[in-house]
Amino acid sequence: MDGDTRKAQSDWISRSESTHGVERIEAFFHGNAYSMHRHDTYAIGLTLAGVQCFHYRRGLRTSLPGQTMVLHPDEVHDGQAGTNEGFRYQMIYVQPAAIQEVLGGRPLPFVEGGVTTDPRLFEATQTALRQMRGDAEPLERDDALAGLALALDNASGARQTRKSADFAAAQRAREYLHASCTHTVTLDELALVSGQDRWSLSRDFRTFYGTSPYHYLVMRRLEAARAMMLRGVSLVDAAAAAGFADQSHMTRHFRHAYGIPPARWLAMTSDRRAG
């Protein structure tokens, strides 16, 4: 991330500028990190190492790796290390208006206690921290926001009241993604093609195809790249032809999708085919 700010010799904060109502930070602290304060955003994050403690809603909370912190807008809290080793964490700050765009006017989700072990919210937070970068594609960012908002709503135990999903609209969006998978696609484009508003489409696409529009797009790109690699096209050329920004961009998504880098996958696949 850009804009590193050093608070002390061994404590540091790395932050990204706010984009479309979302800001990301990563930080490491010993001892007391923050005094009591409040802000008008959700603060949703993961402790990466150590023990992170904070006072929140009349109690002392503890966050460990594998858990998710969810601080509701305008709730007073602080932050400090729970051990002498300090703690490292990542946090994403999201404007309530951005959550409302996805949830369509439902009450803002509230997760009791400030720390949760909900697996869907943990995964959505990991995805948001990974995908909501300054250089991310517009659809990638929108997908991460939608996934985070829906997981937050689910973790809060809110009763689902939305209208029936629109299969025909999701199907039109899917066909458009197939036809345009080598190009940058925005959620606005998909909304225009499908005839739905952007966030209804994002929710319905997940209902019918089990994944987000952006992840669906990336998987089509990866399928195209794998086919080209098997035909002898170099990794760098396959990445460009499939629609990735560069080889490293493809490799990052490849590892996330398949668990191994493309060069190793190609070597193992070629050995098996040769055998």
Automatic annotation (TrEMBL):
The keyword Transcription regulation applies. Gene3D superfamilies: Homeodomain-like (1.10.10.60). Residues 171-268 form the HTH araC/xylS-type domain. PROSITE patterns: HTH_ARAC_FAMILY_2. GO terms for molecular function: DNA-binding transcription factor activity; sequence-specific DNA binding. Keywords: DNA-binding, Transcription, Transcription regulation. InterPro entries: AraC-bd, AraC_XylS_family_regulators, Homeodomain-like_sf, HTH-like, HTH_AraC. The keyword Manganese does not apply. This is AraC-type DNA-binding protein. It comes from the Bacteria.
